[in-house]
Amino acid sequence: MTRKSSAADRSQGPDISKMLRFTPGKDVDVNDIDAIVTPPGYRGDGWFSAETPPSVSSTDQDGSFTEVCRKPLGRFLSFDVKRSLFSGKRRSEQADDSHVTKRLRVDRISLQTLSPMSENDDVKSVVHRLSTDDDVIADGSRPYTLPTIAGKHSGLKAISPETMNDVLQGCYDDELDHVTVIDCRYPYEFDGGHIKGAINLYTPSAIKEFLSRHSCSHASSKKHVLIFHCEFSSERGPKMYRHLRSEDRAMNNDHYPRLNFPEIYLLEGGYKAFFYKFMKQCSPQTYKPMLHRDHVADLRHFRGKSKSWTAGERRQLMRTTLRF
């Protein structure tokens, strides 16, 4: 459809090529583009009707909808008309998107995308919980069972001698499956008096062996609580506490945040503070300090082992720092 407009035409009316009317009648063939696309308000003499302004949409007497657009003819045909002509095809394609197809697509997305993300989200939520909540144990699964106090080591959970006594008297038997008291003093100190039922682990190798021995029991699924202490719980006890936690993390590196022993405590004040308050809970009921005059040679021997281990730990830390 081509029509040349003269200067007089342009002066008396708007440009027809820039305005179109989309008038799909009831009995119009969709393949007849000329019947569908006509100038808005066009009377055949080149003028626009005054009854229907170029920017107004209206409904004709035959019920067809008249829409006036200000797009050029080429752009109108390339997008709007084609979209209208093939709208039926689009609706038929959408009809094929049945409930079963949607269900299969959702299941495929769930298997390929949602499962790994859910696992990552779980790890992220645990890390967030551990970093924001100080009252949950090291695997983020539950709160600490025993009441804690502020101790000398801010990064370790400490309990009072009174709480230790309550544990020994069975006040927490309904909440805890098992409790192991780990005495980190030297053997001559341990033999000179220790908390009833405690075991003597004072070297890193002994700690590692203890951890390996209990790794197959899946201790994290049970409330197996460890309580560390030394004479004052100022150096040896905290050091072994941290060493066991480090080894436990390394052992479960592929299953973070799972741990064999996620709930660990430090007895604040150590054996000395506990002995002077609850002597009857000790066996034998005596207290032998580390600097006892009868054990100078023993002290030199065990302290030498401790220094050699500390030196090796520092060398390992230096190598790690240089490597990373």
Q: Strands, helices and their partners?
A:
Layout: H1 7-12, E1 20-22, H2 33-36, E2 37-38, E3 58-59, E4 65-69, H3 73-85, H4 87-95, H5 99-132, E5 158-159, H6 161-168, E6 178-183, H7 187-191, E7 194-195, E8 199-200, H8 204-214, E9 224-229, H9 236-251, E10 264-267, H10 270-277, E11 282-283, H11 296-323
Parallel strand pairs: 5-10, 6-8, 6-9, 9-10
Antiparallel strand pairs: 1-2, 1-4, 3-4, 7-11
Task: Describe this structure as you would to a colleague.
The protein has 324 residues and is an alpha/beta fold. It contains eleven helices and eleven strands. It has a five-stranded parallel sheet. Strands 2-1-4-3 form a four-stranded antiparallel sheet. A two-stranded antiparallel ribbon has the order 7-11. Helix 6 packs across helix 10 and helix 8 crosses helix 9. The C terminus is likely disordered.
Number of helices: 11
What string gives the helices and strands in order? Answer: HEHEEEHHHEHEHEEHEHEHEH
Q: What is the beta-strand fraction?
A: 5-15%
Give the N-terminus to C-terminus distance in angstroms. 75 Å
Instruction: Let me know the largest β-sheet.
Output: 5 strands, parallel
Structural category is alpha/beta
Overall body shape: globular
Q: Detail the poorly predicted runs.
A: 48-56, 68-82, 106-117, 317-324
Mean pLDDT level: 74
Strand order of the largest sheet: 5-10-9-6-8
Tell how many strands the DSSP assignment holds.
11
Q: Please estimate the helix content.
A: 40-55%
Radius of gyration: 42 Å
